[in-house]
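Exercise 7. Given the encoded structure of a 227-residue chain, write a plausible sequence.
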């Protein structure tokens, strides 16, 4: 996640490690928590969005997850990376919200997504830009159609770029389970779709700067009330 030009933090804070920032936040430099948020907003959004499948609810999940992380920051154990610890908090919050909104389990079926028609345009023309936008939407729709257990793995591995071990640790799965679910997810999301998507997949489920800034403001309003 790029840093905002409106950030109140000096640029040199970007070079601090997560551990250094956590220590300084715990000793009273609360404003530095913004740096952690901006580093992981993209990942947190994609993780939350993979589970709740709704943009607004994903932001609510992120906001509460950041507040939970801030409140329990002193309990953070450096046995795990902060990014992994935060991912677990986001997953826990998202799953809790999904259970509350859907008290009766709904088992998704492994239906395949139909392949899109062949694209013929090339070059950065307005038509090409419109096609890329539509393609991005098709990519996101096909991911949303995945069964819940596959979608989270696919989002973390293929969209966010986490390793198998990081995904397994974040979702509390075995590495073999991650590999199996990813393989099945790829079978559902047709290969042709992603072959034709090109670079559009990396841009799927992006958490844009304006939303990043708004979320930071909301979380810090809550943090101030906790102080």
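Solution.
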């Amino acid at each position: 996640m790029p840093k905002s030009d409106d950030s109140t933090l000096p640029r040199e804070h970007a070079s601090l490690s997560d551990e250094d920032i956590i220590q300084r936040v715990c000793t009273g430099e609360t404003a530095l928590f913004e740096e952690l948020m901006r580093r992981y907003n993209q990942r947190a959004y994609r993780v939350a969005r993979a589970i709740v499948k709704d943009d607004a609810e994903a932001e609510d999940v992120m906001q509460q997850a950041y507040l939970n992380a801030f409140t329990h920051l002193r309990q953070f154990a450096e046995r795990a990376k902060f990014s992994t610890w935060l991912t677990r908090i986001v997953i826990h919050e998202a799953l809790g919200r999904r259970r509350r909104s859907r008290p009766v389990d709904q088992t998704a079926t492994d239906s395949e997504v139909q392949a899109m028609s062949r694209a013929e345009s090339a070059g950065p023309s307005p038509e090409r830009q419109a096609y890329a936008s539509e393609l991005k939407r098709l990519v996101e729709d096909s991911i949303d159609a995945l069964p819940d257990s596959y979608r989270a793995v696919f989002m973390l591995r293929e969209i966010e770029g986490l390793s198998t071990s990081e995904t397994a640790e974040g979702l509390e799965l075995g590495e073999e389970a991650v590999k199996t679910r990813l393989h099945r997810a790829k079978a559902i999301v047709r290969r042709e779709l992603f072959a034709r998507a090109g670079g559009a997949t990396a841009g799927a489920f992006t958490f844009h700067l304006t939303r990043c800034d708004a979320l930071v403001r909301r979380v810090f309003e809550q943090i101030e009330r906790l102080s």
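Remark. The two ends are 27 Å apart (CA to CA). Students should compare their own answers with the one above.
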